[in-house]
């Protein structure tokens, strides 16, 4: 440890620690002990960080009051920035080259890009900070990257529902649900994965008819867990009536059939 830490060094280290653990509260005392500075000095540093992040739309550093209070960083995305990100995604995902046989949309390349997925997760998390979910729930497998990015921004764990129970997860609860294709499928979740009276945020990559989302909500009721919300990267325009209500999606997609099939991806109306 250096004998004397300059302010720019102190602030750089503090921002790295805060940004590396989003939504986690660090006490001012822990920073005082680490940097050998007074609380008044650290408070001034926090105020300076707040101003810089706000000026460049890089998230928020907040002071939390109370016995368990301190400082936390939230990668909050402004409405303007969210619109820019989603409009760019819509541009990339639209066009005839994205349409697969059977009227499906190819977007695996987008969900395999860490930078894009991280941005999507931060946009979703921004909408649900005030709901304070205890974990993010998703269904294997394509929704896992977005669920992890959202959970990271919220500072909570990820819980993955599976099509069949795994022996290494112990005893499990299994339910049947109606998938988007209309087929009856099975969903499984370890009994140790969640606790009664927790709150879940359901996150997935695609919402078509809402069958899988409805199944996850039904699973949470089996565990006595409240569903704080549902968020999706993309929702199909058809069918218009889904099996779930109050589901949030960043984009909507319509596959226009015909001689030259085309994918038309547009930002959700709330943006």
Q: CATH topology of the largest domain, anyone? A: Rossmann fold
What does the oligomeric state look like here? single chain
Question: How would a textbook summarize the main sheet?
Answer: 6 strands, mixed
Distance between the termini: 47 Å
How many domains? The number is 2
- Residue stretches low in confidence (pLDDT < 50, at least 5 long) are none
Overview of this structure, please?
By secondary structure, the protein is of the alpha/beta class. It folds into 2 domains: 68 residues, Winged helix-like DNA-binding domain superfamily/Winged helix DNA-binding domain (Arc Repressor Mutant, subunit A), CATH 1.10.10; 189 residues, 3-Layer(aba) Sandwich (Rossmann fold), CATH 3.40.50. The protein is 35% helix and 27% strand. It has 8 helices and 12 strands. The strands form 4 sheets. The chain has a 6-stranded mixed beta sheet, sandwiched between helices. It has a two-stranded antiparallel sheet with strand order 1-2. Helix 6 packs across helix 7. The chain is globular.
């Amino acid at each position: 440890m250096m004998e004397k830490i300059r302010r720019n060094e102190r602030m750089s280290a503090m921002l790295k620690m805060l940004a590396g653990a989003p939504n986690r509260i660090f006490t001012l005392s822990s920073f005082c002990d680490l940097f050998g500075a007074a609380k008044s000095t650290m408070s001034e540093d926090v105020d300076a960080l707040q101003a810089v992040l706000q000026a460049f739309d890089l998230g928020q550093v907040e002071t939390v009051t109370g016995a368990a209070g301190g400082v936390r960083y939230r990668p909050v995305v402004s409405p303007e920035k969210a619109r820019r990100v989603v409009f760019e995604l819509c541009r990339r995902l639209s066009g005839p080259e994205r349409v697969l046989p059977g009227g499906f949309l190819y977007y695996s390349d987008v969900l395999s890009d860490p930078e894009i997925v991280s941005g999507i997760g931060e946009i979703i998390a921004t909408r649900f900070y005030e709901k304070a979910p205890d974990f993010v729930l998703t269904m294997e497998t394509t929704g896992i990257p977005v669920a992890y990015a959202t959970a990271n921004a919220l500072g909570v764990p990820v819980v993955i529902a599976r099509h069949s129970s795994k022996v290494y997860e112990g005893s499990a609860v299994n339910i049947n649900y109606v998938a988007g294709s209309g087929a009856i499928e099975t969903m499984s979740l370890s009994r140790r994965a969640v606790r009664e009276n927790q709150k879940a945020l359901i996150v997935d990559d695609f919402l078509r008819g809402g069958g899988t989302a409805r199944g996850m909500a039904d699973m949470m009721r089996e565990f006595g867990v409240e569903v704080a919300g549902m968020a999706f990267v993309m929702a199909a325009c058809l069918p218009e009536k889904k099996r779930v209500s109050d589901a949030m999606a960043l984009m909507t997609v319509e596959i226009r059939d015909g001689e030259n099939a085309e994918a038309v991806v547009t930002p959700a109306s709330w943006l």
